[in-house]
Amino acid sequence: MKAMVVFMNNSKTFSRSDKIRTLVECAVLIAIGMVLSFVVIWEMPLGGSVTLLSMLPICLIGFRHGAKWGFGSAFVYSLFQLLTSKVFAWGLTPLVLVVCILADYIVAFTLLGVTGFFKEKGEKGVIIGTSVAMVLRFICHYISGVTIWASSAPEGWNPWIYSAAYNGAYMLPELIFTIIATAIIVKIPAYQKTLK
């Protein structure tokens, strides 16, 4: 009997120990992302905050292991973000609560897994993939802002402009910091080996 069970994954052999190692690595990166999400660099007056690169570990999963692992890990991360949020204490109606959970948490954070589609694109792909993932997350929050949170806009504000200002105020710095950190990481020789 063989000591190693072999699974097929994207037409490549994938041993059981490789699968376990990848699973553990994803779990560790999700945990790091969660810890970093509690390290707030600054909080915006109306809500939203800039964290210490909390999305970077989740984006790196996609680059290292592809879209399947990227989306799976990002989905798990979205659940942890939801469970540690205060959304259930906001007194939302059931319909608004469901839409908020989907748009602001499940879909928004799961889309970080899109980086897996840029796995084979090298260093430039890592930068572009990170940018795409962050922009997609912003779009989810933006749409949520103009639909379920439109009534939160201050008097005289157009909800479309308010949502862009509100979400852009924390997502733009997050995007810039994450891209800078990603550009630094891809220059590390040990990480470059993983891209090949």
Summarize the structure in words:
It contains seven helices and four strands, in the order ββαββαααααα. By secondary structure, the protein is mainly α. Helix 1 runs antiparallel to helix 2, helix 1 packs parallel to helix 3 and helix 2 crosses helix 5. The protein starts with 5 loop residues before the first strand and ends with a helix.
The largest sheet, given as strand count, sense and whether it forms a barrel, is: 2 strands, antiparallel
Terminal CA distance reads 33 Å
Q: What would the average pLDDT be, to the nearest integer?
A: 88
- What is the β-strand count? 4
Rg from Cα:
18 Å
Main structural class: mainly alpha
Shape: globular
**Strand order in space, largest sheet:** 1-2
Flag low-confidence runs.
1-11
Query: What are the secondary-structure elements, in order, as H or E?
Result: EEHEEHHHHHH
> How many DSSP H or I helices?
7
Considering DSSP H and I runs of 4 or more, what fraction of the residues is helical?
A: 55-70%
The proportion of strand residues reads 5-15%
Pick out its properties.
single chain, 196 residues, mainly alpha, 7 helices, 4 strands
SSE map:
Layout: E1 6-9, E2 12-15, H1 16-37, E3 40-43, E4 49-51, H2 56-65, H3 67-83, H4 94-110, H5 122-147, H6 159-185, H7 189-195
Antiparallel strand pairs: 1-2, 3-4
Helix pairs in contact: 1-2, 1-3, 2-3, 2-5, 3-4, 4-5, 5-6
